[in-house]
Write a structure and sequence with these properties.
Length: about 350
């Protein structure tokens, strides 16, 4: 079985991708510094797949450690790079943290593979499109000036990857531009596990419903949308994880589009914040306590993706809808209430 390195593999998307890689016949190897995840997730992954994944704890911003690790793992044929700081609001408040962590980790990995062929899947974001001119947004849409340092790191990282793939022969790279991952594994053993106050909508919804938070704040009620709240393309995290497996498979057989390519990964449907709240209330039977607050700096008004390229060329499509997203997230929150991991 091919070994696939998963950086940030104990994180939210990383842990689900480790499971789906194993299900597809790969051997995942995890590197994580646990700065925004919990070592207990390894136990949870083991409960799902029946084996404990190989795990290494260190910071990819350490150039020497990264190079030594890569040299010690010649069996690795693919790399899925999740490890990065990822909260829009925090990036506005602390941009240097984001530029340091997100660029040094990426560059160190690329340098470590300068002499070794590698299939590289990068965790990018629909934030590279900024506020799109037309919807749904396609991969050929212009990359606009980022609205946050987080978004800027994704834009610049894509430029680094594209230029690296052009300059050197040994890199085959796909950047997956995610929309908004939500939900949890059907076992309710892994899901989104934010440290401290959640930065994303759905864990704040579930924590409010379970009683961990007094109320949910909806940031902005006067946007140019049907109900005044922001619109996003929400995608189930298991579907997103399977997209990474599809990307690895495409790189293994040879991507006809060349050595660097990008794909949108979403459902192609947009839901407003208020529609997401209503969907959660329907799926869970819980009435949410929420209030409206001011707009949040860095937020896009509305974005959802054209995912036809992923369907036809990546051979991947989302299968799980908004009901499964909400019910699985609620099942995970209830599991955490009874089995506190942190």
């Amino acid at each position: 079985m091919s070994k696939i390195l998963v950086t940030g593999g104990t994180g939210y998307i990383g842990s689900h991708t480790v499971v789906e890689l194993f299900n597809a016949g790969y051997t995942p190897v995890i590197v994580d510094n646990l700065s925004n995840s919990n070592i207990e997730i390894l136990n949870q992954i083991e409960r799902i797949i029946g084996v404990r994944p190989e795990f290494h704890q260190f910071d990819l911003c350490d150039e020497n450690k990264t190079r030594e690790f890569i040299q010690s793992q010649p069996e690795i044929s693919g790399l899925i790079h999740f490890a990065a700081s990822k909260a829009v609001g925090e990036s506005v408040a602390d941009p240097l943290k984001y530029y340091y962590n997100n660029f040094f980790s990426l560059i160190n990995l690329l340098n470590a593979y300068r002499e070794t062929p590698i299939n590289f899947v990068f965790s990018s974001s629909c934030t590279v499109y900024g506020e799109p001119d037309t919807l749904p947004v396609t991969e050929s849409a212009p990359v606009k000036k980022a609205t946050s340092p987080y978004g800027n790191t994704k834009q610049i990282a894509e430029e680094i990857l594209a230029e690296t793939a052009t300059a050197y022969n040994n890199y085959n790279i796909i950047a997956l531009r995610y929309f908004n991952p939500v939900g949890a594994h059907s076992s309710a053993l892994i899901g989104e596990l934010p440290n401290g106050v959640p930065q994303n909508l759905l864990p704040f919804i579930t924590q409010t419903a379970i009683g961990k938070r007094e109320r949910l704040t909806v940031f902005g009620s006067d946007y140019d949308t049907p109900d005044g709240s922001c619109i996003r393309d929400y995608i189930h995290v298991v579907d997103l994880a399977k997209a990474h497996v599809a990307a690895i498979k495409l790189l293994e057989k040879g991507n006809p589009n060349g050595k660097y390519d990008v794909f949108n990964v979403g459902t192609g449907n947009g839901y407003s914040v208020l529609e997401a709240i209503a969907a959660f209330e329907k799926a869970s039977g819980q009435k949410l306590n929420y209030t409206f607050g001011p707009r949040r700096e860095g937020d896009i008004i509305k974005v959802w993706g054209d995912v036809s390229k992923s369907s036809t060329q990546l051979n991947w499509s989302a299968e799980l809808g908004i009901d499964e997203m909400m019910s699985s997230a609620w099942a995970w929150e209830k599991y955490l209430e009874e089995n506190p991991i942190i």
